[in-house]
Write a structure and sequence with these properties.
heterodimer, A: Aldehyde Oxidoreductase, domain 4, Aldehyde Oxidoreductase, domain 4, 3 domains, seven-stranded mixed β-sheet, five-stranded mixed β-sheet, 17 helices, globular, B: alpha+beta, Enolase-like, domain 1, five-stranded antiparallel β-sheet, 12 strands, binds flavin-adenine dinucleotide, binds iron/sulfur cluster
Chain lengths: ~700, ~325
């Protein structure tokens, strides 16, 4: 093992900083025309008519697609990645900002100018704009986690134990709507050659996009080619095939020319999902010694109108397994509103749910007068208490230890408001992080050439996280070649099938596929005696120009025998102006068990990036929706606040070693989502420690602290 | 964005002449106007670029500072004379936007930037400022960022500029040029309250432009400060801000100049606070009494009542900073 574990620079770093890396919207396709979306300005009702004459007569306009002349799609398909509405198939309006028309023109500026002239007449219904008003209408998800498990779970007698317990907490935590806002907005170029469709599109899943578009247009998946060599961030909002990609393909079909459709920043707030608002009721109890005796976590998350699909934020899953507690109940409910369909956003469920869970744990520790870390250690789960299985590995104790030591946690005064620097109150808080280790079947193709180079092709995609780099390292080690000689190609649906890049599972899924394909290549050349001979040398001996192999890798028995999770410990210091309420994070330490680390440099970027994301969740990010119309009021990155450099202290991210190889053949647990889980709670707990004020909703604002 | 004609005059007279055409608008750094054009909030047919007109000088002497309308925000902020004589202006500029925006944004453009009200900046909403008579959804809507002072039943949007708050505290004069020649007005008279015409924000006449801003030198200006409070540490408009200038002799306040941002529909002078400070001792008890009346007359909306308290505390803190 030479390259795995090294902190290599990104193999695509130079291309990115020089502009050489081509993103979806940047491909030059001859004869290209441009499409611009027109969106509804009402929150519920139906379109009764369009006034298109003014727009149609503007220079360069080729066509305006509305439900009246849209292509009829095969919308009955049941693929999980396909978003089937709104695709201009009917006149209904389910939310404000819904796509109602597409203007296609020769130039982008022409399409944009004409789009502003499209007038739509509506029949208006009263939209449900806030979930809080309809919480009493919460309903059970139809297909929680795609039907993999029930929405509710229970062990022991949580309600009885709660009633009997001495130390109790009964509290409601609220998290807001958040939008992913990756740097690269959604963009698609679509071109038809007869019945064959090629799309260059920004996606976290080229394979799912291929399947979805084929199903929607009623053609064979083999006739759809999806190309996406680079993605400018996804965070979950590029996991599905959202309407803009489908509408680009529809427009291209209708005008008979290649069409580019790039969503504007404002349209990103209604085009590709969001992290739904959640209202979570927690009832936790402990005995006097500090053992958890009851945990009840009832989560409700905001939904669109059910006709658009379904997404339930799985807030309670970590509550089931994180602590050794005999009596636990978890429920998940939805409330329908006139909002777009929500979706996965970095650590879906875990991030929102953990804010409630780890705030509640902190509150109980306060009630018990115990140090929050000691309290967590007292309830440490040695095995998965929900599934009753051993963990494949769990280095959480070591995360706590290393994180606490680096942070100086032992010097924490137990009382709030105990640390002060002039006008500023200082507080320390912590939280536990956990995220499941997912894996799906993946395939890879490997060819080794006699000149000592190798080509690796996989139908995965690099979201900007470093997939090109780590996969090259894995191939290099397995083939015994220098990493510079590995040529990695991904982002094309012609390559062997790989799953969506979501759930932090790309390394754990695709890595083993490359590894097995490399092994298959070697097996083709090696006789018993020459396992130590270099592959190019073996090729030369056999006078072969190259050797190739394809292989699939997927999980096996280990999935049944073990519970697989990554873990971490988050420590935050905040400074709060005692009179003015301004909150800044001043110090941060996170220690993580992400399994084996393939590349310490790209891993560290993921970890600090996740922590920054979490600080945004704690203090800044929130989508504001107008209560009257259901329209987003801050659909831009000036008023939708995300951290800037000045908000971020020096972050210490510790990689806790873990050499376990049970979870998969690489021992990778996934680190994309793990580091943001727990940050909001750690910050909220630190704010409490600084000020004595417990804030149970995000983001925490100045006005929450003006006491 | 809609198509427009761009003219690039190279003299003041030529610019004024070009601006006479109906639907004309000046463009300086373009950092605000371009956004408004892209979002179809403003739809001029003629853009008059001020880049070649000059007007970018920054001059200071013992009695006065003169900032040309086309001086870049970043150039004004680093100018040694401005830093020495009018620190509140420097601090207000440095707390504005980002270095990139300040490198393009100009003094004149900054004073005339439009409100950040999210309803105003999206044509999918009604808004009296953008479309007179269409209504003001902010009053019953998302109003955390809105004004608590100077609002009307027609509009409660804040004026966004930090610089304008510092200039208001320091009694700046705005020099205007129109086809009828030059006039100078105190900045306090330059901005209008929304009343029932929120779309008319200043006293500028059609085709008239800002050519310069002048500020007197004074002890209070030399000892001036700008305090800006916000959710994000940088690159955000003020939730509440306070500009203060204090002139004191032997521990007694001779002059106090104060204005607030983020709270008013225009940069908000605080004369009652100034009066409560004049002739008093430079001490916390005095600051406490004076700051307690800072939000007098405020009428908050549902989500921004906290600005009243925050304003009082910000005034108190700014006074402490200026007396330190
Ligand atoms: C992301 C972002 C964050 C920002 N944050 C802040 C902040 O925190 N604080 C703050 O104060 N500002 C902030 N700004 C606003 C910024 O300071 C202004 O955009 C800038 O000052 C405008 O100057 P400009 O020269 O680019 O004006 P332009 O955009 O060119 O023009 C603005 C307006 O002024 C008119 N105009 C310009 N010059 C003249 C003149 N001489 N005479 C008559 N009319 C004229 C134009 O017609 C136009 O209506 C921010 C801007 C952005 C984009
Ligand atoms: S506050 Fe003013 S700018 Fe905002 S919506 Fe109301 S009228 Fe328009």
């Amino acid at each position: 093992m030479a390259f795995i574990g090294q902190g290599l620079d990104r193999v695509d770093g130079r291309l990115k900083v020089t502009g050489g890396a081509q993103y979806a919207a940047e491909f030059r396709v001859p004869d290209l025309v441009h499409a611009v979306l027109v969106q509804s300005t009402i929150g519920a009702g139906a379109i009764t008519g369009f006034s298109l004459a003014a727009a149609q007569s503007m220079p360069g306009v080729l066509t305006i697609i509305t439900p009246e002349n849209a292509l009829k799609l095969h919308a009955e398909s049941n693929l999980p990645q396909a978003i089937r509405a709104p695709l201009l198939q009917d006149m209904d309006v389910h939310y404000n900002g819904q796509h109602v028309a597409v203007v296609v023109a020769e130039a982008l500026e022409q399409a944009d100018a004409a789009a502003a002239r499209v007038r739509v007449q509506y029949r208006r219904d009263e939209p449900i704009t806030s979930m809080d008003a309809v919480l009493d209408q919460a309903y059970l998800p139809k297909s929680f986690r795609n039907g993999e498990r029930p929405a509710d779970s229970r062990r022991g007698d949580p309600d009885g134990a709660f009633t009997a317990a001495q130390v109790k907490l009964d509290a409601v935590y609220v998290t807001p709507i958040e939008h992913h806002n990756p740097m690269e907005p959604h963009a698609t170029i679509a071109r038809w050659d007869g019945n064959q469709l090629t799309v260059w599109t920004a996606t976290q899943g080229i394979s799912g996009t291929q399947q979805s578009l084929a199903a929607l247009f009623g053609i064979d998946p083999k006739d759809v080619r999806v190309i996406c060599p680079y993605v400018g961030g996804g965070f979950g909002c590029k996991g599905n095939t959202w309407p803009p990609a489908t509408l680009a393909a529809m427009a291209a079909k209708l005008v008979g020319r290649p069409v580019k459709l790039a969503v504007t920043r404002a349209q990103m707030f209604t085009s590709n999902g969001y992290r739904p608002r959640t209202v979570q009721s927690l009832r936790f109890a402990a005995d006097q010694q500090g053992h958890l005796v009851s945990m009840r976590h009832d989560g409700i998350s905001q939904m669109s109108q059910p006709v658009l699909g379904e997404f339930a934020e799985p807030v309670g899953l970590a509550t089931e397994m994180l602590y050794a507690c005999p009596n636990v109940a978890v429920t998940h409910r939805l409330v329908a509103t006139n909002a777009p369909l929500p979706t996965y956003m970095r650590a879906p469920g875990e991030a929102s749910g953990n804010f409630a869970l780890e705030s509640a744990i902190d509150e109980l520790a306060v009630a018990l007068k115990q140090n929050p870390l000691d309290f967590r250690m007292r309830n440490y789960a040695e095995q998965d208490p929900h599934e009753n299985k051993p963990f494949a590995s769990k280095a959480l104790r070591e995360c706590y230890r290393q994180g606490a030591e680096a942070f100086g946690w032992s010097r924490r005064p137990s009382e709030p408001r105990a640390m002060r620097d002039g006008n500023v109150l200082i507080g320390w808080g912590m939280a536990t992080s956990t995220y499941p280790t997912h894996r799906m079947a993946a395939n890879a193709y490997v060819r080794v050439n006699a000149d000592g180079t190798a080509l690796v092709q996989v139908g995965t995609q690099d979201l900007g996280t470093g997939t090109y780099t780590v996969m090259s390292q894995i191939a290099a080690d397995e083939l015994g070649l220098p990493v510079q000689r590995i040529h990695l190609e991904l982002g094309d649906s012609r390559f062997p099938h790989a799953p969506v890049s979501g759930g932090s599972m790309t390394v754990a899924s695709v890595g083993p596929a490359i590894k097995t394909a490399c092994q298959a290549v070697r097996a083709k050349l090696s006789n018993d005696g020459d396992t130590n001979v270099a592959l190019p040398e073996l090729l030369a001996r056999r006078n072969m120009p190259s050797v190739e192999a394809s292989s699939e890798a997927k999980s096996g028995e280990e999935q049944k025998r073990y519970s697989m999770h990554a873990f971490g410990a988050q420590f935050a210091e905040v400074r709060v102006d005692a009179d003015l309420g301004e909150i800044r994070v001043s110090r941060y330490v996170g220690a993580f068990d992400g399994g084996r680390i393939i590349n310490t440099k790209t891993a560290r970027s993921q970890l600090i990036g996740g922590i920054v994301f979490g600080i945004g969740m704690a203090l800044l990010e929130e989508t504001h929706v107008d209560g009257e119309t259901g329209r987003v009021v801050n659909a831009n990155v000036s008023e939708y606040l995300m951290p800037v450099n000045a908000d971020i202290p020096d972050i210490q991210a510790i990689l806790v070693p873990n050499d376990e190889l049970v979870s998969n053949s690489l021992g990778a647990k996934g680190i994309g989502e793990l580091p943001m889980v727990g940050v909001a709670a750690a910050v909220a707990n630190a704010v409490y420690h600084a000020t004595g004020v417990r804030v149970r909703k995000l983001p925490i604002r100045i006005e929450d602290l003006l006491v | 964005m809609q198509a427009f004609h761009l003219s690039q005059p190279n003299s003041l007279d030529a610019a004024l002449a070009a601006a006479r055409s109906h639907g004309a608008k000046f463009i300086a750094g373009g950092t605000d106007l371009m956004q408004l054009l892209k979002d179809n909030i403003e739809v001029p047919t003629e853009l008059v670029d001020l880049e070649r007109v000059g007007l970018s000088s920054i001059q200071a002497d013992a009695s006065e500072l003169r900032l040309g309308a086309m001086a870049r925000m970043s150039d004004a902020a680093v100018h040694p004379d401005v830093r020495a004589g009018w620190p509140a202006i420097v601090q207000a500029l440095e707390a504005s936007a980002s270095p990139q925006v300040r490198n393009m944004g100009t003094i004149g453009g900054n004073l005339l930037q439009r409100t950040r009200c999210g309803y105003f900046r999206d044509t999918g909403f009604a808004c009296n400022k953008r479309e007179p008579g269409s209504g003001c959804p902010a009053i019953a809507g998302e109003n955390r960022l809105m004004a608590i002072l100077g609002g009307s039943d027609h509009c409660i949007a804040t004026h966004p500029s930090d610089l304008a708050v510092a200039l208001t505290a320091l009694d700046a004069m705005v020099t205007l040029h129109g086809i009828n020649g030059e006039r100078r007005v105190p900045i306090a008279d330059f901005y209008r309250l929304p009343a029932d015409t929120p779309h008319i924000e200043t006293i500028l006449q059609p085709g008239e432009m800002i050519t310069a801003v002048t500020v007197r030198a004074s002890g209070a200006a030399r000892n001036s400060h700008y305090l800006k409070l916000r959710d994000r540490a940088s690159f955000e408009f003020a939730l509440v801000s306070v500009a203060v200038g204090l002139d004191q002799r032997d521990g007694v306040i001779e002059h106090a100049l104060l204005a607030a941002g983020g709270v008013g529909t225009r940069p908000w002078r605080l004369p009652q606070v100034e009066a409560a400070l004049r002739g008093k001792a430079l001490e916390d008890a005095v600051f406490g009494d004076a700051s307690s009346i800072a939000a007098g007359g405020a009428s908050p909306a549902q989500q921004n009542g906290f600005k009243r308290i925050l304003l009082q505390r910000a005034v108190f803190r700014a006074l402490q900073m200026a007396s330190a």
